[in-house]
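TODO from last week: model histidine kinase.
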Amino acid sequence: MMSVWLQRPRFLHLALFVAAYVLGCAFANVLGIVPGTSISIWPPGGLFMATLMLASAPSWPWWVLAGCVGELIGQFLWFHSPLPASILMYVGNALEAMAGAWLVTRVCGRPVRLESLKEVLAFVVLGAGIAPAISATVGSATLAWFGILSQTFTAAWPLWWIGDATGVLIVAPLALDVFQNWHGNSRLSAARWIEASVLGLIFLGVAALSLSGYLPFAYIIMPPLLWAAVRFELRGAAVTLIVLALITAVFTISGVSQFAGDPESQRQRQIMLQLFLAISALSALIVAAISRQHQLAVLRLRQSERSLRDLVETLPALIWCAAPDGRPIYFSQQLRGFVGFDVEDKDVADSSRLANVLDAIIYPDDLAAVKKLFAHSLTTGEPYAQKHRLRRFDGEYRWVEMRAAAMRNGDGAIVQWNGVCLDIEDQVRARDDLRLAQENLARASQAASLAELSASIAHEVNQPLAAIVANSHACQRWLTADPPNMERAQKRIERIIQDANSAADVVSHIRALFKHSRETRTSTTFASVIAEARDLMAEEAARRRVRMDVDVESNLPFVMLDRVQIQQVLINLIRNGMDAMDSSADDRVFGIRVRRIGDLVQTEISDRGPGVAFPDRIFEPFFTTKEHGMGMGLAICRSIVESHGGQLRVENNEPHGARFIFTLPVDAPAEATAVLAAGHQGHALQSPDRQGH
């Protein structure tokens, strides 16, 4: 109840509704031309139904109450029916209006504008077809029950139904248009006003001639009626239908209409009158809906075209279109601004527009290739794509990427070429700058690599050279002693020779590494290589207070390796592990563990330092985590191991530290030879025993 009270209409609107309802009753009374009946066209039904279509459901009780007031006033003034009969007939009218409004809005939704064929058909079938049957049934039963004017149910029902249907068809469209456009700002242009005036005069003239009986055919009014529906849509149809109903009423009342006649034929003429108005209304509404749909469709195929054109004009690309023969027919605003002219500007008598446009915008060195490829696309229908230089309006040539594709109709024939031109000058320059930067970087990298490699080689050779210098000084002291100590000098000379040979070996093996040479590789037991590396680093480990924990599996197989290079790998990894534990206050333990795993010899070198922060980059050249590191040691180690057919990787230990793991393949032929030799040796040892027996 609260929602009904809050949804109450304004009193002025209710009063206007009651007044319009009473006037509709008067109009119906005027058109009651059948003697002895009170049944005719019922305009209040159309007004009532249109009001409920636009009103909210909670406000319906107010409109039903106002309609009841209007019905009772109309019955009192015009029809003089008994009060119970008037109330029953109004119940039928109210049920008709509510049923029609509910059915139409259920199908069409709100608001109902009758602008589409679906809405019009739903309105005609449900609002003007089904809903009036309710009122006709209740009203005809009431007339028969109360014996008003000796009406029977079967005689009254058809007239009642068609009268209500005609009233709905004529009045409801105009009421919907007026209610929804009460404050509308739509205005007609001067030309439209002239057209409406001419149409009105023609309509009035034809209606007067046809309905006055001068012309025997009443439906001659249809052409101007449909003209109004086509040109002015729903509003034109609704207004002309009301005018037609009024003119028909005037001529019928005056008795000169072809729908007026003797009492014996008056019933048939009443039905003809109602059918005439109903058919006219139905035709006008359908034509108006079709016209409106067409106008909306045209307005949408135009809005889409305008949107597409706006989109094309604002795209950050140069758009163009060409005829099937390649003749340019459209340049977008962006392209016109770029080249400084439009396609029509290059029309010259006795010459091709395409050739003129290409000559004006294509770089001379690119022109022949562009014409050839574009001609190929025009001939075959294949898409066109090419990069070339395009002349800008200021004379500067810029690199562009031109692409085009053929647009075809349903039969597959080319109807137009659509193309896009992308300015890639900045990309081309950036690519050139990048290539130049990459070349400079490559040269710088080569120089840096050479410098780092030189430093690495110097680092490797520095130790034997330093030993040579130290032993040379010692030899000099023994030779200059008085008397000279030849024995000690001789020993120092032997150490000098040994250190010099070591330096030469380092250089030759480094050269062999970068030449991928295998000449310096020999089949060696890996345990001996580990032992040599441990002995070489023992003094440094003691100095740095690092305990070396070496665990080498017994009976390791032979490995084909370059002894000096593998020692370089071991020494580098051992030294890196010691460096990692320099800042450690805990027990500094460095572990070396060697095991055979299948056909591989695996070596693990672990420390208890902070671990490796970037394990995926630690082997990259020039990448280092040391403050004064060169970033070449681990890269060279990996190169050495991989050149031997092995792999080198790093893992972080738990809870701290790192573990470098590298593998080397077993020398299978040497292992087989060793097994065979061991077998022969055992056989030889057993032979004398067998002979002794």
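Done. The radius of gyration is 54 Å.
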